[in-house]
Amino acid sequence: MEISTSILSVNKEEATKTFYNIEAAKTDYFHIDVMDGKFVKNNTTDFMLESTETIKHISNTPIDVHLMVEDVRDFLDIYIPMQPCFITFHYESIYNKEKIKEVINEIKAEGIKAGISIKPNTHIDEIIALLPYVNLVLVMTVEPGLGGQKIIPDTLKKIKELNEYRKKEDLDFYIEADGGINLETIEEIKSSGADIAVVGTAIINSNSMKDTINELKK
Ligand code: DX5
Ligand code: ZN
Known about the structure:
Layout: E1 2-6, H1 15-24, E2 29-35, H2 45-58, E3 63-68, H3 72-79, E4 86-90, H4 97-109, E5 113-118, E6 136-140, H5 155-168, E7 174-178, H6 186-192, E8 196-199, H7 201-204, H8 209-217
Parallel strand pairs: 1-2, 1-8, 2-3, 3-4, 4-5, 5-6, 6-7, 7-8
Helix pairs in contact: 1-2, 5-6
Bound molecules: D-xylitol-5-phosphate and zinc ion.
Residues 6, 31, 33, 66, 178, 198 line the site of zinc ion.
């Protein structure tokens, strides 16, 4: 199980110090939650941009960008030059399958892995046709927009279904789960078939990030 630490709940006053600590705690990825104040109420665009620049400056740990935005292309122009490992956008922000495939190819053409994310109420049937093209599916296990929420148990079924489908069709996309994941919920995330778990508050608020990440990875 790989861990992608979400920086959404980092205290801005001590952001750089916290990024050093997350790096030292050996997270597998930094998870960058870009919110435009339109797709979700919260707006994190400035903090996420400066944080990504800081993280790139102080660390070689791969960056996992999660775009919760309406104008996906605008944010590709900002984040593609940062050369993250993943850029994931929401199915619900485009809906048009052909356009989604174009965006996926645009990201992959830059040597960046392309992910599609689905909100809790979106069923995997809506993205089945896209699965042969994506490198990652991000299953939201909470409603996007906030850290520190409780996991929505129903979303675990979607992770299981995706895992089954992936095996049946011999596809090789990563399954990433995001929201409300902690030491209590990580087991069922793992057993459902997720490869990467996004964890925010459970790591940021813990008294030992290293121990927490080690526990989560077990
Ligand atoms: C929510 C974000 C998640 C969130 C995870 O919209 O996509 O990445 O920050 O934070 P926790 O682990 O606190 O739920
Ligand atoms: Zn996220």
